[in-house]
């Protein structure tokens, strides 16, 4: 099991993310942190924190410039040695049993290449609730993933051996593009209905940053164009998905503006 964390100017949050890895009931074989050209104290903090792990467990890769999160993830992925790759963002955290539960499920279901799970949005001062005793698993089809946001990247665990990588030229929505490519190519995915990830920001529209929402939407629309060029979609399906995506974008704008008025 390899844990992959890309960082960029994350000095305020990286300790929380690393602590959530350190406290896992199932420890990974390695924690790969790829710093994407941070200009603050992120790297220094990571080096200091690394002494809390067993020697050699935390591996820091420092990139010379800010290449983007998908480039950083690809670099970490290419150095990973574990059977599974668990993705975590520097400003999020995990429940302490996340790796144990998810890895156990994937080991028992060899047909699955990709799994995710549900999440909870918390503030810095919130305490995470206890996990439910009963939970279910939902198989994810390609078209479900095309139409709906199934799970965030910090919930993802996948088999590291697969011959695919993130499109490093994208700044947004590159994760969804990769998951959809995997599904179109016959790989299987499932969602564990268990909140094992904690996001300390809203899934979208944090602080009313509608400009970021539009950049994300443009990248999502470009995903559909790329999928058509790859031969996975026809013209009618591309148009339908773009229209549906734009409707969801307008809803996010409305939610974002409401949130900004409340705060």
Question: What are the key terms here?
Answer:
Spore Coat Polysaccharide Biosynthesis Protein SpsA, Chain A; alpha/beta
Can you describe what's shown?
By secondary structure, the chain is of the alpha/beta class. It has two domains: 198 residues, Spore Coat Polysaccharide Biosynthesis Protein SpsA, Chain A (Alpha-Beta Complex); 57 residues. 40% of the residues lie in helices and 20% in strands. It has eight helices and nine strands. Strands 1, 2, 3, 4, 5, 6, 7, 8 and 9 form a nine-stranded mixed sheet that branches. Strand 1, helix 1 and strand 2 form a beta-alpha-beta unit. Helix 6 runs parallel beside helix 7 and helix 7 packs antiparallel against helix 8. The longest helix is centred in the C-terminal third of the chain and has 28 residues.
Q: How would you classify the quaternary structure?
A: single chain
The termini sit apart by 40 Å
Rg, nearest Å: 18 Å
Give the proportion of residues in helices: 25-40%
The ordered string of helix (H) and strand (E) elements is: EHEHEHEEHEEHEHEHH
- Coarse structural class: alpha/beta
Counted by DSSP, the helix tally is 8
Q: Overall 3D geometry?
A: globular
Tell me the name of the CATH homologous superfamily of the largest domain.
Answer: Spore Coat Polysaccharide Biosynthesis Protein SpsA, Chain A
Counting DSSP E segments of at least 2 residues, the number of strands comes to 9
Give the class-level CATH name of the largest domain.
Answer: Alpha Beta
Q: Sheet with the most strands? A: 9 strands, mixed
Give the low-pLDDT segments.
205-210
Content of β-strand? 15-25%
What's the number of structural domains? 2
Mean pLDDT: 92
Annotated CATH topology of the largest domain: Spore Coat Polysaccharide Biosynthesis Protein SpsA, Chain A
Label the CATH architecture of the largest domain: Alpha-Beta Complex
